[in-house]
């Protein structure tokens, strides 16, 4: 069996202040950008029309935009879809979406008429059409939010059953961190927020939570062994003991996600971006958010006399923790 990073003794928790500073700066940057310009919702959430077009020969996207601008679709988004002959077209301006209230097919038919009259019926073909009214988009946006909140509730219930509240609270805070960092990443990357991105976000939450639970399970096992060491050292030991498993799991998952990002096409690319970032932020939060939060909770609300001893030893210097006999001799 392949064994890498076996029997390591890295002090991961030592860098928690630097790690939290970096993640706070990243979240602030993302949400600062969000304050300047709002979320880039897809037509699934705003209402609008999406078309996949195929032209008989390569065409300049500027010609498509010019034709749509003359017809009043000034906010249309045109994106090459694999080749210079294939494009995706999104129309979701305020006037057009409002017009869809009278019928989701209205804008779609108007766009078809513009393309046919400009390029000829034999030169352009519509391979796929999605027309979503504003009411449907609003319902989808609400349902997506409900799905995220329900995932949190289910997570809380699971953690309440699986762990005591100290571990559960630390895991939930780490999961909340993953949501904020992923949203900041989506905004900084200008990714379109669609149902696919929501699905990726929910997947990231489950993935990150699983990583945290693996580490906390090892912490709980080590605590049951009755080792005479601080919770700080127990946490570092658990992270080091699960390090080989974590590296192999994250590397294989990242490789599969990277393949999706490079070869799966435009439709699945936002999902791959979010998943790839989720692997990084999930690993980060399991070590540098969940661990330090658990240590803080333990010091703030110690469980018993043993926890009081952990509290005293975890606030001592590394020398006093590693050389208890020397400290006793000195006293």
Total individual domains: 2
Mean of all residue-level pLDDT scores: 76
CATH topology of the largest domain: Multidrug efflux transporter AcrB transmembrane fold
Main sheet: which strands, in order across? 2-3-1-4
Written account of the structure:
The chain is an alpha+beta fold. The chain folds into 2 domains: 13-38 and 137-321, Multidrug efflux transporter AcrB transmembrane fold (Up-down Bundle), CATH 1.20.1640; 48-132, 2-Layer Sandwich (Alpha-Beta Plaits). Helices cover 68% and strands 8% of the residues. It is built from 14 helices and 4 strands. It has a 4-stranded antiparallel β-sheet with strand order 2-3-1-4. Helix 7 (165-188) packs antiparallel against helix 11 (290-300) and helix 8 packs parallel to helix 10 (269-288).
